[in-house]
Every structure is written in structure tokens, then in C-alpha cells.
């Protein structure tokens, strides 16, 4: 063992150690870096383990000569306990050293005791930074079964870190599927906002790895699966003066239409995930807008249209031309007051215009007009097929990538909200069914929220309400039902506080923004302070890992995934310095126009 000094002061938060002179420091310089570990004797064949936070030196003059003294400030993180002649690492400060106890630097055999592939700590994520011979293993259940925060500035290796972790979890190694003969039960859904991750999971067909890729062209997300908040965020402006009337009549029309198209359902609510015809709802609202008479007068009006027809709201599903004349009366010319039982005398003009604009926007076809092969629309009986596409059960895919890059920004939050809520509701009801048989959920899911600050921000307008509410609900309740989150962001200080406060494990790559650094420091335990100060200077792919899944906070070098995601930055000057390149503009414009259709 390499003796380096002795304890001079001790507390639960800090152990200070004096090094035995300049020579000892020089001989152990590599082992006495910030983030490295020390073991401290307790006189009983056991050792306290501490992580180095900082080293300070002081020069003094004695008998005309300069002498150096060095002090290490360290945080106690655990203990090496003698168990029948074998040292075993235990987290926490079971042993608190006292002054004069001898301190030793860690060697490789000590590191192997802590980080070796033993028991529950068997999921390898890389190797200790600065020591490629010592693998870093974590508890896979505590890592993927609890929420994970992955943070790092642009270029820090964030996307590669995420891809490497998930490849390892689903059995992809060096572009090979190690589980091709016996597919595992992994279920990962990635919200990919920049279309980066598809390349990381596309391997040779002979490897029999099925990737479920959903984009704006093949994503089927019928509007009738939306809940009240999602529907209203799409169609209603909450800041309009008469928004309460819009909500009231829209809700009324949706419930009536659901009842019309689903007569077999005895109880129908605004939230029921069953089919309704949005065009008929539009007609209903527009007819209401044109009506200017009380309900008793409506009966007269409909009698003039057809002697056998009496007024009924179910007659409003088709557009009625109230401007036309029948006999001697103009229908819109009936000079009467507006009432809640009758029409709204143009009060909904802006609402109708907004509905019309949304329904005619072909970019929203995946929401408002999704069709099956041919031209058949999705209805209530297709709910199972729709659900299977997100859960990977159509092609038995371990990975589902929801490519958000082609989704119009105005419905990005709504899309994230709807997909994540459907997954949560499935996990909730599946878990409840299992609980009835005294079993637990055996189909757990992980949702990866890439660039999370874009749709679950800390602050923002009403356009983010839907996605924030859905993801925050998963953060608070998801683990009970086998649903966990991996929240990935280059600006953690801009992500919802609720989300990160629920994360039990963190991977912090290089962070250069001081606000983000301070935000992450506030989330992590005080014992991690020394390592966290290294965040601005970490190498690409180097991460500080802390949480329930690791034995102790550590700096780890994560391996590069193979294949890699398409997240590399453009080599700008290299491209500028090359010869002039021509562009086929018609191809660019053709794709551009297709995106805008």
C-alpha cells in the first residue's frame, strides 16, 4: 500500500489530510488528482474511502530553507469492510476516521473491489477516467428503473453517450445484435428532435434487429385520442375573450358526436379515447355560430325547412345555409336575441376560422386525417393497432424512434404529450391488471426525451402545457407502473424543475455554461462538489456519474457507440477550405415543398 499521509481533521462532510512532504506528493502525483480516491485506516483492518476534492500547498522557511506542506480536502463516500478476509465496499460513512489515522492512495486492486462486475452491479457503461483497466459497472435495475438526467454542452458527446447506453441495454455491440437468436424484452421509446438516432440503431439486416421508426410520413396519431387539454390547445386560443364559450360548445359537440358514432358505449365523456368526426364538430360549431334564435324559434325555423323536421342538435352535423329563403322568411333574418340554447350570432367567427385553418393544413394530416392503407380512416376499433405502433409490438422492435424533426413546431408539444400519455396510460392499466394477480409489471418502458428543453421547458407559454403536464406526470408517478424517463439536455437550467428533481441518476458531461453548472451542482449531493467543478474541462465522452445506480460518484469515460448517431458538427473551416461545390437546387426545393405540403 502507498502511504501518503495522515488525517488532521475529520467531519461527516470533510476529511483533511496532510501529505508526508514534497517527495511523497511527487511519487504519487497521478494517484492524488482531484476525483481520485484515498483509503484511511481505522485500526481494525477496515478502511474509510474518501474522494479528493482539492489539494493546496504552502511554502514556509525553516533554518534558511524552503519547505512545502500539502493538505488534501476530501469527502467520505464509503468504506472497505473486512468480510471473512475479503474487503467489501459499502456506500455511506459507516467509518469516520479520526486525526492521526494513516492514509493510503488507491491502487488498481482497490479500484477493482469497488467497480468490478459483481452481483447487482453488472451493467458496464465504460471505464474509469484515466484508468482504462478498471471497468465501471452500475446497477442496471436502479439505473433504468429510475429516472435519468443526461446533461452536457454541444459537442460534449451527449448523443453518443445516450446511444452507447441504449445499445448496451438492447444488445448491440460493434454493429452486431448479440440477441438475434433470442430477442430480449427491452422497450425504449426515443423522442428524436434532430433525426440523429436512427443511424445508431440501423445495422445489417442479417443481424435481425428490428427498429421501429415513426416520422411525420408514417406516424398515425388520430385526434380523437387527445384528452381535453390537448384538444383545446390545438383548436382554442385561451386568451380570447369568449374562450369559455368556445370550450363549452366544443366540449358539448365532441361528447354528442362521440355518442353518435359509438352507440355501443353506455358512458361517453370528453376524455373517452373513442372516435368522433372532427368535420362534423366543425359543422356543428359553425351552425351554432349562424343561429340567432331561441330554441323555441328553432323549431319554427326547422319547420319552414321541412314540415316533418323538428329541431334537434343532432341535425347540426351537416352545414345549414341559414342565409337562404324558404317561403317568406329568411332564416338568419329572424330578429331575435342570442341565448345559450340557441346560436351565438357570429361570436365564434374567429374560432371557426381557426378550426377551418387547422383542418385544411395538410402538414397536420398525421393528426387530423390519418388513414390506413387505402383511404380508410382510423376509428375506435383501431385503437389497439395505433397503440402497438408506439410500443414496438407491430414488428417486435426493442427501439422505437419518434422522429420529431418533421413535426410542425406548433404541434410539437402536443405530439410529445399525446404519445407519452398513451404510453403512461398503457403502463398504468397493464400494471393494474398484473396487480390483480399479485404480479408486477413485466413490460417496463424507458422514454428518452432528447433536447428536452424544447418541449418541457422550465418557463414558457400555454403551447408547452400539454407536454409538460404529460412528462411531469411520468416523472412523478411513472416508476410505480414500470415507466421511466431519460431526460437529455444541453441546457438543464431551462428544463422543468419537476423533471430533474425526480431524477435519481445523473450523467453530467462537459458543461461550459456557468448557470447550468450551478444548477446541476444544486441537484447533486455535497460530496460530489469537487468532481462537479471539473465539468467545464471534461473530455468528449467523459462523464461524471452519480446516483442510486452507482456505488460512488465517479468520472467515467464512456465508449463510442457503433454505429454512431448523426450528431457530429460540420467541419466548417475544412469545408470552406475545399474546392467550390455545386448544389442540385431542384432536389432541395422538391424536398422543401414536400415538407410544406
Account of the 3D structure:
This protein starts with a strand and ends with a helix. α6 packs across α7. The protein is built from 18 helices and 22 strands. The chain has three domains: 114 residues, Elongation Factor Tu (Ef-tu), domain 3; 259 residues, Rossmann fold (3-Layer(aba) Sandwich), CATH 3.40.50; 140 residues, no CATH class. It is 30% helix and 22% strand. It has 597 residues and is α+β, with helices and mostly antiparallel strands. The protein has an eleven-stranded mixed sheet. Strands 1-2-5-4-3-7 form a six-stranded antiparallel beta barrel. A two-stranded antiparallel ribbon has the order 11-12.
What are its keywords?
597 residues; Elongation Factor Tu (Ef-tu), domain 3; Rossmann fold; six-stranded antiparallel β-barrel; 22% strand
Main beta sheet strand tally, sense and closure: 11 strands, mixed
Radius of gyration: 32 Å
- Portion of residues in beta strands equals 15-25%
Q: Write down the oligomeric state.
A: single chain
CATH architecture of the largest domain: 3-Layer(aba) Sandwich
Amino acid at each position: 500500500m502507498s502511504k501518503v499521509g495522515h488525517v488532521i481533521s475529520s467531519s461527516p462532510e470533510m476529511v483533511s489530510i496532510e501529505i508526508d512532504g514534497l517527495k511523497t506528493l511527487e511519487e504519487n502525483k497521478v494517484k492524488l488528482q482531484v476525483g481520485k480516491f484515498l483509503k484511511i485506516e481505522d485500526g481494525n483492518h477496515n478502511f474509510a474511502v474518501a474522494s479528493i476534492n482539492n489539494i493546496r500547498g504552502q511554502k514556509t522557511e525553516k533554518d534558511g530553507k524552503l519547505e512545502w506542506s500539502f493538505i488534501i480536502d476530501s469527502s467520505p463516500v464509503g468504506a472497505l469492510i473486512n468480510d471473512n478476509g475479503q474487503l467489501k465496499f459499502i456506500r455511506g460513512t459507516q467509518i469516520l476516521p479520526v486525526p492521526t489515522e494513516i492514509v493510503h492512495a488507491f491502487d488498481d486492486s482497490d479500484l477493482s473491489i469497488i467497480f468490478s462486475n459483481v452481483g447487482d452491479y453488472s451493467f458496464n457503461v465504460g471505464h474509469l477516467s484515466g484508468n482504462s483497466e478498471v471497468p465501471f459497472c452500475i446497477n442496471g435495475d436502479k439505473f433504468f428503473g429510475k429516472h435519468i438526467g443526461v446533461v452536457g454542452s454541444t459537442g460534449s458527446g451527449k448523443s453518443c453517450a445516450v446511444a452507447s447506453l441504449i445499445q448496451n441495454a438492447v444488445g448491440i455491440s460493434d454493429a452486431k445484435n448479440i440477441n438475434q437468436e433470442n430477442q430480449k424484452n427491452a422497450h425504449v421509446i426515443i423522442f428524436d428532435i434532430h433525426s440523429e438516432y436512427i443511424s445508431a440503431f440501423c445495422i445489417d439486416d442479417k443481424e435481425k434487429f428490428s427498429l421501429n421508426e415513426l416520422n411525420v410520413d408514417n406516424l398515425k396519431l388520430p385526434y380523437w385520442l387527445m384528452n381535453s387539454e390537448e384538444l383545446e390547445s390545438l383548436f382554442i386560443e385561451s386568451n380570447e375573450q369568449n374562450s369559455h364559450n368556445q370550450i363549452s360548445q366544443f366540449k358539448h359537440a365532441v361528447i354528442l358526436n362521440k355518442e353518435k358514432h359509438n352507440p355501443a358505449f353506455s358512458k361517453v365523456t370528453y376524455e373517452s379515447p373513442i372516435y368522433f368526426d372532427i368535420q362534423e364538430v366543425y359543422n356543428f360549431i359553425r351552425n351554432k355560430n349562424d343561429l340567432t334564435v331561441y330554441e323555441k324559434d328553432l323549431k319554427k325555423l326547422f319547420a319552414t325547412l321541412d314540415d316533418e323536421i323538428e329541431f334537434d342538435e343532432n341535425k347540426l352535423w351537416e352545414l345549414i345555409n341559414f342565409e337562404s329563403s324558404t317561403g317568406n322568411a329568411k332564416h338568419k333574418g329572424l330578429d331575435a336575441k342570442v341565448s345559450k340554447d340557441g346560436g351565438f350570432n357570429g361570436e365564434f367567427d374567429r374560432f371557426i376560422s381557426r378550426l377551418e385553418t387547422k383542418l385544411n393544413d395538410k402538414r397536420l394530416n398525421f393528426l387530423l386525417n390519418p388513414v390506413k392503407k387505402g383511404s380508410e380512416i382510423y376509428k375506435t376499433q383501431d385503437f389497439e393497432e395505433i397503440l402497438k405502433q408506439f410500443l414496438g409490438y407491430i414488428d417486435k422492435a426493442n427501439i422505437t424512434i419518434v422522429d420529431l424533426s418533421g413535426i410542425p413546431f406548433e404541434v410539437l408539444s402536443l405530439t410529445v404529450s399525446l404519445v407519452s400519455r398513451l404510453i403512461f396510460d398503457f403502463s398504468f392499466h397493464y400494471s393494474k391488471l398484473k396487480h390483480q394477480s399479485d404480479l408486477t409489471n413485466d413490460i417496463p418502458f424507458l422514454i428518452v426525451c432528447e433536447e428536452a428543453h424544447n418541449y418541457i421547458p422550465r418557463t414558457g407559454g400555454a403551447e408547452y402545457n400539454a407536454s409538460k403536464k404529460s412528462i411531469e406526470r411520468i416523472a412523478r408517478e411513472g416508476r410505480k407502473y414500470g415507466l421511466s424517463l431519460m431526460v437529455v439536455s444541453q441546457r438543464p437550467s431551462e428544463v422543468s424543475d419537476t423533471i430533474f428533481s425526480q431524477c435519481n441518476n445523473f450523467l453530467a458531461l462537459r458543461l461550459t455554461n456557468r448557470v447550468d453548472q450551478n444548477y446541476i451542482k444544486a441537484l447533486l449531493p455535497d460530496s460530489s462538489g469537487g468532481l462537479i467543478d471539473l465539468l467545464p474541462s471534461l473530455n468528449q465522452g467523459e462523464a461524471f456519474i452519480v446516483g442510486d445506480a452507482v456505488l460512488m460518484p465517479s468520472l467515467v469515460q464512456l465508449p463510442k457507440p457503433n454505429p454512431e448517431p448523426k450528431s457530429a458538427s460540420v467541419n466548417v473551416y475544412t469545408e470552406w477550405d475545399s474546392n467550390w461545390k455545386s448544389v442540385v437546387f431542384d432536389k432541395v426545393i422538391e424536398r422543401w415543398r414536400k415538407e410544406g405540403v
